[in-house]
Amino acid sequence: MGLEEYKGVAVFAQQVDGKLSSIALELLGKGKDLAKDLDTKEVTAVLIGSGVKGLADELAEYGADRVILVDDPELKEYRTEPYAHALASVINEYKPEIMLVGATAIGRDLGPRVSARIHTGLTADCTQLDIGDFPLEPVEGKETKHKQLLMTRPAFGGNTIATIACPNHRPQMATVRPGVMQKADPVKGAKAEIVEYNPGFKPDNKYVEIQEIVKEVSGVADIMDAKILVSGGRGVGSPENFKLLEDLADAIGGTVSCSRAVVDAGWKPKDMQVGQTGKTVRPQVYFAIGISGAIQHVAGMEESDIIVAINKDEDAPIFDVADYGVVGDLNKILPDLTEKIRAARAAKAN
Amino acid sequence: MKIVVCVKQVPDTKGGVKFKPDGTLDRAAMLTIMNPDDKSGLEAALRLKDQYGAEVTVLTMGLPKADAVLREAMAMGADRGILVTDRVLGGADTWATSSTLAAAIKNLDYDLIITGRQAIDGDTAQVGPQISEHLDIPVISYAADIKIDGDYVIVRRQYDDRYHVLKVKMPCLITALQELNEPRYMTPGGIFDAFDKETTVWGRADLKELADENMGLAGSPTQIAKASDKVRKGAGEKVTPDSPQEGVEYIINKLSEKHVI
Domain residues of chain B, as ranges? Predict the structure, then answer.
């Protein structure tokens, strides 16, 4: 494999129902950062779907220099095989040195299938990406490779963190956890070069048939976009008692989220769950209320700017990550807190 | 119908995690369990066996002590277990692991392969889809329900905000979500029988379809640059107020200081 033939950063611009997923723009933001440290500064978005050419401008505004468009009726809904064929063909044709994919329910299926097809490594669920030397420090008798993609990810339920490289295969592929990388500020009116490419699609045994599509509309605001999250755990006590959190969220202009225990108990839907098996959030303020702070939960919220914890158990591990911890009964604290916040905000508004 | 279920013996992440000097995991030093998603995959296979009749083979790759998860699987109702173990297979990343497991599966007859979505140690969710690619068969990831219809499987495939009902002709590979079911317990009779049932041990030489360059640490495209315990930001303040009002005051003051309110 001629590694030097592979140049530039490419990102999989995930779209669903003709709308770009937030992760597509996050990857462009990160891709631009990475490209600054490479010889080829160009960032390419790989846009795959049916009738999605109109999305190219949005990709350009968020930093894509070039959009490779694979548009075909077979690609209307996500299915592993036609999408894997599309992405693998683009990689083989355009040879990016870095290929980023979102660690979504789509990307975590597409990424491994593509990496196996083109025989390269894939690092899952990365939370940090850098360009640097591999090995990190010179090792005698081992060649130091420069300008490698260094992919950092948590493992063991967040207990450990590993940095991984892919020195001898290209592209260097990573899936990236949604909500971790920052989007660039959009540049209105920016344009990208659009390259249309179709490798041809011939349905075979690997093309699954979609019999039914059921959308699960929860009506809940996306917790990953919230500036303030009021998050409840098992300690809230009952689904009815979440009213206290909803009132607080309403008073402070926040959104309610929850821990895994709450989802497992059936009190709240899965899309409100913060943590390793839920969503990663980084709001300005995170209220952890009646949440013990299992490591899997902490992994999903520890990047929040300010963490306020209320828990009656003074030994709860949540206090190890909280900026401000109050040992006490949430039932007694929350109503009063909500009222005072309401009063404070009203006073400020006048 | 012949079903192959891939299971992994994983360190119980509730315990501590240990590394060898080369940065790879010191699995020998940790307590182990059957990976939860894999157990749900096994349960799904056993339910298909109960409903439609099937022969269920459990396949694992690991240290010799990974035999324990095969025994557990057989005590739950699997028909036989195969352990792939060899020093030269150690240190494998997902590419090398999936290449090795695919080579083992090529020794078997199968209609359906079930793996867990992801293992709690690596959390990659990559090995299942990669095995399917090496075998050139379709994959359906994130299965929340599995039905059989003649030569076809019908699977509810979960996404973030929707699910698709997918139909595909076997052979195929499915990755199971833990939400799929509640795995059964081992029965006393099952435990007893499990020790009478055959487990097969395969080494490197038994994997004819596996190329040297695709196995073990040397056959792994990804390499660990650094591995360490996660350094967390330190604890901030913690107060134990005498009254709820005092606690409220404290929070209000902090939120004001930080200009949140």
Answer: 2-214
ipTM, 2 decimals? Answer: 0.88
| pLDDT exceeds 60 at position B15 | no
> Which pLDDT value is given to residue A285?
95
Q: Regarding the domain with residue range A3-196, which homologous superfamily does it belong to in the CATH classification?
A: HUPs (3.40.50.620)
Can you list the residues of chain A whose pLDDT is less than 70? 1, 157-158, 217-221
Q: Which of B94, B248, B255 sits opposite A122 (nearest CB)?
A: B94
Q: Which residues in chain A are contacts of B162 at CB distance < 8 A?
A: 213-216
Domain B2-214: state its class.
alpha beta
Q: How far is A285 from chain B (nearest CA, A)?
A: 8
CATH of domain A223-349: 3.40.50.1220
Mean per-residue pLDDT for B122-150?
A: 95
- The predicted pLDDT at position A220 comes to 58
Q: What is the pLDDT of residues A7-41, one digit of tens each?
A: 999 999 999 999 999 999 999 999 999 999 998 89
Picking from B120, B127, B237, the nearest residue to A157 by CB comes out as B120
| pLDDT band at residue B122 under the 50/70/90 scheme | confident
Quick check: B13 pLDDT over 80? no
| Among the ranges given (A94-98, A211-215, B135-139, B233-237), the one the predictor scored with the smallest mean pLDDT | B233-237
Residue B25 pLDDT > 70, yes or no? Answer: no
CB pairs under 8 A between A and B: 255
- CATH topology agreement for domains A3-196 and A223-349: yes
**Contact: B250, A326; criterion CB under 8 Å:** yes
- Domain extents for chain A? 3-196, 223-349
Give the predicted TM-score (pTM) of the model. 0.85
CB contact residues (below 8 A), chain A span 304-343, against chain B: 306-308, 310, 314, 319-329, 332-333, 336-337, 340-341
Inter-chain CB proximity A208 and B221 less than 8 Å: no
**A328:B154 CB<8 A:** no
Q: Write out the DSSP string of chain B.
A: -EEEEE--EEE-TTS---B-TTSSB-GGGS-EEE-HHHHHHHHHHHHHHHHH--EEEEEEESSGGGHHHHHHHHHHT-SEEEEE--GGGTT--HHHHHHHHHHHHTTS--SEEEEES--TTT----HHHHHHHHHT--EEEEEEEEEEETTEEEEEEE-SSEEEEEEEESSEEEEE-GGG--PPPPPHHHHHHHTTS-EEEE-GGG-TT--GGGSTTTT-S-EEEEEEEPPPPPP-EEE--SSHHHHHHHHHHHHHHTT--
Indicate yes or no: CB of B127 within 8 angstroms of CB of A112: yes
What share of chain A has pLDDT > 90, as a percent? Answer: 80
- The backbone torsions φ and ψ at residue A278, rounded to the nearest 5 degrees and listed phi first, read -115, -130
